[in-house]
Every structure is written in C-alpha cells, then in structure tokens.
Amino acid sequence: MADVSSDQSEPERPATAQGARDADTRTGAERGVAAETEAVPASAGTEAGAERDAGTSAEAGATEETPAGPNPRRLLALVFAIAAVALGLDIATKVAVVANLEGGPPVPILGGVVYLDVFRNPGAAFSLATGMTWLLALLAIVVVGVIVWLARKLRSTGWAIGLGLVLGGACGNLVDRFFRAPGPMQGHVVDFISVFAPGGQYYPVFNLADSAIVCGGALVVLLSLLGRDYDGTVHRGKRKQAGS
To answer: Taking a C-beta distance cutoff of 8 angstroms, is the pair 143, 170 a contact?
Structure first.
C-alpha cells in the first residue's frame, strides 16, 4: 500500500512546480500592468498642468498686452507738431478777426450756419467761469506742464494726436491770457465763432483753440474707453465691453 501511494503522488510534483512558475509569470505581468497604470496618471497630470498653464497664459495675454508701438521720439515730435499747427492757426485767426471784424456786424459764412462775431471772453472755453480769469490761466499752465511731461512716455499715435490738440489749444488761449488786455494772467480770450446765429444765441461763441481742446479731449476719452492707454497697453476686455 505504501508503494502504491508513493507512485501516485510523485507525478503531481511537476504540476506543482509548473503552477509556481505560472503564478510567478502572472505576478510579474500584474506588476507590469500596475506600473503602467501608475505611470499614466502622472503623465496625464503633467500634460493637464501644462494645458492649464498655457490656458492661464493665454487668458492673461487676452486681457492685456503691450505692443512695441511707434518710436517714442517720433511720437514726441508728433505731439509738438500738432500743437504748433493748432497754436499757429488759433493765433492767426484771432489776429485776423480782431483787425478786420471787431466792432463791426457779424459776418455769416457757410450759408448762415456759422457767423464770425468777435467777443472778448474773460472766462474759460465757451464763456464758462468768466469771473476766474487768473485761476483759469494758472490751470492752463498746469495742463501744459502735465502734457509735456506725459508726452515723453507716449507709445500711442492716437494719444499723441489727442494730447497735441489739447496742448495747442491750451497754449492758444494762454497766449491771450498773458498778452491781451487788461493784463498778464487776466487777459480776455478772443472768441469769434458763433453757430446758427450771431451772438451765441444757440451755442456759446468759441475759437479754434476751444475746438482743438474739445476734439483732442474727446479722442483721448474714446481711446480710454477702447482700452488703449497712453503707453501703448491694450486692455482687450475693455475694448470688448466698449464694442458691445
């Protein structure tokens, strides 16, 4: 009996060794799959992080950007060139109307849409603040100083045009404050443009300097609403809001 059981149990040993090898093979395969499974999330996390960083950079770039812009020296020259033209036209027209029209009847032009009617204005643009001549002269000096200081930092052609117009207009009226009667810092500004009727019946009488100040100021406000700063920075969010 002992011999028979021994003969029957011996063939099972190779099967047991083979099973162990199979188990080792399965265990190694499972370890490989587990390693691959652990490696995939790490790689995916890295790629996802890179995508998030790229998205953040893209959003930041879409919100604000600072292009190279024009040459600062050219913009500075543009500011003073526009200011010089505005100042020259303002002085020339004032000299002409004072010499030829002051004391006479209003002269209609453009079919009566505009009247040339000379007035001496002690106040600000469009005959505002008539009792504060010296304060207006001081304010004009401050405005001129600020524009000259800011002009060196310009990186925007639109801002250069706008500030040039304001600078020329402010200087034009400031010349009257200094050199016309009754005296320095108290001189009365010459106004001569009346719209739709003489004497400023529908709209205050003004001059070319006033027009330059209004046009330049309006351009600067428009650029600000569009998200364009004087230094060339473009705020895309503001531009979209202004366009909506």
So the answer is: yes
